[in-house]
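[audit] Reproducing an earlier prediction to check determinism. Same input, same settings, fresh worker. If the tokens differ from the archived copy the diff job will pick it up downstream; this log only records the rerun itself.
[audit] input (681 residues):
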Amino acid sequence: MKLFTRDETLFSLKCYISAMMALYISYSIGLRNPFWAMMTAYVVTTQPWAGSIRSKALYRLGGTILGSAAAIAIIPNLNQSPLLTTLAMSLWVGGCLYISLLDRTPRSYVFMLAGYTAALIGFPAVDDPIGLFDKGISRVEEISLGIMCAALVHTLILPRSIAPVVMNGLDKTLADARTWIVSTLRCAAPEEDRQNRRKLANDITQLRLTASHIPFDTSNIRWSSHLLRALLNRIISLTPVISSVEDRINALQLAGQPISPATQEVMKNISDWIESGSQPSPGQLQTMHSAIDAITPAIESDLQWHTLLSASLATRLHELVNTYAKCVQIRIDLDAGIQSASDDAGASRRKPDLHIDRGIALQSALAAAIAIGICCVFWIITAWPQGGTAAMMAAVFSCFFSTLDNPAAPMRVFLRYTIYSIPVSAFYLLVALPSIHTFEMLAMVIFPVVFVLSALAIRPAYALQAMAMLFGVLGTFALMDVNQATMDIYLNSITGQLAGTAVAALVASLFRTISAERAVVRIRNANRQDLATLASARRGQITPHLTSRMLDRVGLLQTRLPAESREASPGTPDPLLALRVGNDIAVLQSALQSLPRAGQSVRRMLDSLAAFLHKPVHNPVQGPGEDLLQQLDDALTTVLQAPAIGSSHHRAVVAMVGLRRGLFPQTAHYPVTPTTREVRS
């Protein structure tokens, strides 16, 4: 194991200072459980950045107050009926967990904390509900004190800004997008680039989640957080455009039509500009757009398939130039700290649009309720004094790992390392702490173990194990607060902790764990449902929310697909395909009102597409049937033969070409005839 780095050492020291400050103030003002304040100071600081700690501190404080109010409302009123109390607490924790899982930003801490804080306060007070209000107020004071001490110390003492992490990630994301564009335009995309572009989606999602802490950061970047979100939104909209350009180039090669020298020259000029990373002048942009216009074929009724592909490619090149130029401009404005430079700065203030699986959220809530119910029923039947501890731990761990596909695995790790912490916690509780009579000696004795474990807690390889041992040790310190530091009470308490963790892990493995394959199917079916809803709509829609959500799903798929499935092959569906299809459907919907003569044919095709997408599939290679292909070709022919009215006609044709490529990528002939159908089969 390597020695601790400067950042790890500084982080651990700041955690220790905040914990000792909370502990000292708790003793000074006579709080009931000073060690709860100390433990809270460590619970809040799971990441080293000041912005993250401050944002989580605010949300945790709100969740603590809400959870305390729930415990005060439930326990005294239902105390005479243990089964009703169990049912009410299980429903409260499960309901709060369900709501928290519908928000993947730090705001979710409010409801998650509200859930298990009610369990932490309510279950120990079942035997004495009369004093619950005072205990609840005291617990809020202790937790709030720990939160405020942690936020204060990490803000004032050498605060570590999250800005370098976000800006470095942003620049890397832009560089990856630039590399993808250049390799695409030069028709030289190696397989490694194909893998990196899928990782790009996950990087964008992680950046968006990390950037949600920016408004709470200590650096000046918090005043430009809306610009940062605007840039991320632009990169999100850039992704399907690059994918479409790449697809059209591949389609032309599949159709046996080499790209014309003029088009190659235009693509080379665009790639040279993008590779330079410079901001284009208005004249340079106009020159590139004029060059693209020169290679754009006119839309006529008798166009061949390769000509339609060329027209689609030219349109996507226009979008690529505009979108990337806007990304460069916003990045420069972000460095300059310009507040109102971005046209879409206002739109960027909306919350991130991320994939939400309500079914999995409901499963997690039910698993938490079942685990709590099992512990409470055992507690009622056996009258075990530490049954409440088991129920508390079941609630806490059911919430902690609820965002994972397989929460049982980290629960088992946590359980194992909690067992490893027993000798350390027993030594402190039964030997060291009873012999200490001054705060200074207490702080010195505690320092070695908490310093080492908190420093390891921010190392990814040791984070889970270190946190398990740290919380195992700190949790037993609370017995000192109530003068219960005896061997029998300690063994009962640690048994309750282990039993609650084990029950949570067992219930999660039976009712909550899903395989990576099932998660992939659910994510892909969610994409299909969004596309079906878009296709069946009766009016034009703008899809920034949809694009963002689908790109997030691409990142989620990337982390769940096995390595061999990530390799591009003819039988493997492109994870970016849904993005392109969604954008094309949205463009076609918006152009429908300007196509009165062809609108009925297009609407019939979209309804058939929606009916196909509404059916969930378990085979990712399964595609639409020949009937939909025939309807799509008929609709495209009708649109081509309709009189051109404004730009809507051109956009509709390009969108239908994109749909045909997305839904039937192996069909190289248009329109499909009996002869070409035999060739395709």
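[audit] rerun output stored. Observation attached for the diff report: DSSP finds 26 helices and no strands in the chain.
[audit] end
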